[in-house]
Specification:
three-stranded antiparallel β-sheet
Length: about 70
């Protein structure tokens, strides 16, 4: 589907090899994913969880990428 296609370039590689992810933080990864999906999907947020305690939620350009408790 659309999500699989958007994330496929990230499989089996170093994230920092992709344009826009040279400094691949959770916040930048959330924005990168949002930009690839938001034209085709009505997104509410993109959430990246590094582990149970480190979570980033991006709510689009009007919002911002924030770390929040899981």
């Amino acid at each position: 589907g659309l999500v699989d296609a958007a994330l496929a370039p990230l499989a089996h590689c170093y994230l920092n090899e992709h344009q826009g992810l040279e400094n691949a933080t959770s916040e930048r990864l959330a924005v990168w994913i949002w930009r690839r999906l938001s034209e085709d999907l009505d997104l509410e947020a993109v959430r990246i969880a590094e582990n149970d305690d480190a979570v980033c939620t991006y709510k689009g350009p009007a919002g911002d990428a924030r770390r929040s408790p899981a």
